[in-house]
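Worked example (supplementary).
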Amino acid sequence: MSGLVVRGLRRRFGGVAAVDGVDLDVPAGAVTALIGPNGAGKTTLFHCVTGLDAADAGTVTLAGRALTGPPHARARAGLAWTFQRIELFTGLTVAENAQVGAENRRGSRSWAKLVGLPGPWRVEGRAVDSVLERLGLAALADVPAGTLPTGTMRLVELARALAAEPVALLLDEPASGLDDHQIERLARVLRELAVGGLAILLVEHDMRFVRGVADFAHLMIAGRVEAAGRPDEVLAAPLAQEIYVGEV
Amino acid sequence: MFYAGLALNGLAVGCVAALAAVGLLATYRVTGVFNIAFGAVAVFCAYVMWQCVRVWGMPVGVAGLLVLGVVAPGIGLLLERAVYRPLRSGASGLLVATLGVLVLQLGLVFLLWGGRSYVDAPSLLPAGDVRLGTLHLPYATIVELCVVVVVAGGLTVLLRATRVGLMVRAVVDDRDLAAAVRVPADRLAAGGWAFGSFLAGLAGVLWAPIYHLDPYSLTLTVLETMGVAVLARLASLPVAVGAALVIGVGQTELTAVHPAVRWQGLVDAFHTNLFVLVLFVALMVLPRLGIRDSGALGGLHRVGARRSRADVVGRLPLGALSLVLGLPLFFDPGDLRAALAVPALAVVFVSLVVATGYAGQISLGQAGYAGLGALFMAKLAEGGVPWLVALFLGPVLVVPVGWLTGYPAIHRRGLYLALTTFATAAVVGRFVFAQPVFVGGLAVMRPPGFVDDHWFYGLELGCLGLALVVVWTLHTGPLGRALVALRDSEAAAVSAGIDVRRVKVFVFACAAGLAGLGGALTASAAQAFNPTDFDPVQGLVWFAAVAVWGVDSAVGAVVGAAALVAVDVGTVVGVSGLLIGAGAVLLGRFPGGIAGVVRRVGDWFAVSPVRGERRLSPAGREVADRVRERRA
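After joint prediction of all chains, the assembly is encoded as:
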């Protein structure tokens, strides 16, 4: 299967099973949301998939190939992700942030390139331009990323992830800190990307955003996926009603 | 074989080490700052004690009371008020500030006492000993042991079981938060610093009669006991005391080991340097040393500062720089001879810009790599390699050393990385540069054709140019961006597919090679290998100097090297230390150093169609653009 597939993933911290045998499908061409209360194990799952944390058991495959090794190797294999707490290269401009993402993707390891010799990799510049254009950041291309407001920083993070032209994109609460206008734009971009064949997994607390953008939703509670399906169905389940009372 | 007599001697050594380690840890526990300047405070107090007794003729008891009761706590209070309190929001800038205090105090010692060594440091403790059968236990050891036990025990009880202890821990954890719930944070912090400085003074006054009163070696000796604090994971006072005593006893027991003659030198090196070895091994081997060192790099960089490529070798800086650096060729012979130190030091400084400025990896160990560059060059030439080839091949051989030592270091961050790199330099200094087997009878000559000072200065400038080309390569293009990415956010760099470990080791190795070239030039200029040129404490001074001039500015590093040499030549000894130390202490207030200030001024005058637009937020700038379009 194309996209991201997680099977039997487990991670224990002492006596607590933070992720307890999770199966998760993030199909290509769709937006999948992972929802659940705080402490459900969403971020741990996220870390096990990206390699930031080592799973005790289970497998992760990306486009049919096993995803293993350290995080940077997984990034090169076509997995891109953003962080709950914004992580940016504040000393670089917006365009350079995206360029770092583009330069270190799959099949781009060349010493000649690393030391800055000219070559056929100019194509990356065009990829960066189109990503910035798509996210409405073109006007800010030469602005130092560290001087931007929070919402715009989130978009720069997304630009960096997209510039690597990933197979699957993992977003940890991408809508937090964004204003309504930016959320709308983000939703539109995510829909477009999904239509373009990208597999997108987002961890999100904003249920309005999830309803608007996601094709599938998985409800995670105490380390297990308790419900999965269309967002409306999952959010209508009694468990979800209990957690998100008043929000759904 | 265990010798009781030796063990008692070792106990004496262990006691003073324990005292220093307990002092370091106690300061850390009550202030939240790992005070690298501890050794310098100790040395300063020891010199004041010497001055009071030997020059002014005070009775030892009165002098001791004055130094330990007034001077030492006074230094602590002064530092807290002037240096640490302004930096209290977060730990940012603290490491550089403590380094600044160290350099400042050493500068003061050099200025006031000319850096002279004295062997007649007065002893506070009574002479004589207690007889235990055939063994003699000096009174001094008994007193020291009591002091250590009382301080370690008392502090443990105070912190764990009293209300004051709870408040102190709250202040260490988050000073502003503690103040918000009416904990007298300022007073407690001031008390903590006064107490920490008192312990430093006590360690200095007790150590000076045992070792020589010497600014560098005594500072280094005290710094080396950091190994004990690291073994105790900067937490457990009893573990620190136990470890210090065991190492002290182990050190003296080693004097009874007599292996084959050819190994004797090595065993001797061990028995005088067990503490530094423990520091090195503990830092290399101990896994996951957790410490509150977030933002240890704070103040070194301007947050959100735009990376200025023009800075490396931009037209204007390069033109001005070439002009200034070319001037010494027209100096009289004496001044030209002094100026020979500038390009060599500039290459070492530039290596720091690469490691710390671009990649964000603190390196306090460049002195070690610089010395190795000089040593390898001399050894290669001894083996028949032409001097000119050796000058470049020696530093190349330092690259794998940087690679090897950088590999364990890359797992560390902030303070622990700083300590690890410092320990590397200390081990190289003690086990290589101080060993006659490696440096005895070593001849250093200039390459044929470059023996004349003018020609050699030209060669040095060529080497500096080469170093700047390396820096330019590392600063621009994908690799340059990857380095800044690594500095700004390791997590994000990993997510972008950057192999963080490989890049870090690569940078370490490059920086080591550059430092090696600087060291080889230094030795060639002096036509001698002087171990003091590559003293680990010297590495700390270099780091502070580069930080002050702007750690991410290669031009700043070159200008800084020239300024340092000029001040050293043009004024009395100690002034450069005072200036660098004061600059480093103030670095928290002007992030990015002098280069940062210059860039800010440049930003102010930068081309801007609408006056003051630079100060607008990006959104504001967008609006300004739209307004302009409409007007047009």
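Two points are worth noting when inspecting this output. Chain A has two domains: 1-78+166-248, 88-165. Residues 180-195 of chain A form the longest helix (16 residues).
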